[in-house]
Amino acid sequence: MSPSTRSGTQAASSGAVPVSIRPARRTASELKALAERGNAELRSRRPDEASPAEVVAWVAENFAVAQAAVACSMADAALPHLVAQSLPGVDVLFLDTGYHFAETTFTRNEVAESLDVNIVDVKPEQTVREQDAEYGKNLFERDPGLCCQRRKVEPLQRALGEYEVWFTGVRREEAPTRAETELIVWDERNGLVKVNPVAAWTFDDLIDYATVHEVPVNPLVANGYPSIGCAPCTKQVAPGEDPRSGRWAGLSKTECGLHL
Q: Which residues are annotated binding-site positions?
């Protein structure tokens, strides 16, 4: 098994990366009730939907930083930056699939160096070479669902077992499958609270936030890649097209399985 690896923005004098001690994990029933209470509290505080900052602040009131994780594809660092304002030093999970664009790896390194977060490289159990040996070369061409399952979904599920809450950058405008995304939900499959603070944002909102706060943005975004996944399965998107139409182009597949 390839373990997740961590790289923080600061290190102790010995060179070791400080690791926060996690409090005892609450039960599933306690966390589920907390998620339900969170939505009720946020709705009671204002007549319209809570802002992303308010959602993150609620999480910071109810969870220790060591209990929280941010999932980030490294298309941009808006979400890690937003979360770090209330939870400095938060773990940012990067799914190191072995198929990333060089620009994505560059952005991952930029985020590690410039933000007050701790990058956790989440790796599959098999390298690309080992997977090719077992399943044949380029599994993503023949069975993209299985490839995503082995290189994204399963590694993330293992990593999330350490936390009580995870943040995602899912936005309602991205796809019909995401149109009803709530701000705080109980994630039954992974057994923890799932928070989608930027659900109401548009792509322009995301870029505006990144510009104002001068956070890293993957260079591919400016070159026609508004949604970025693994290099073999991500294509450029023409102006006016669905932002996610470049993901698994030509296939019926629209999601990798992380947010089903």
A: 147-148, 230, 233
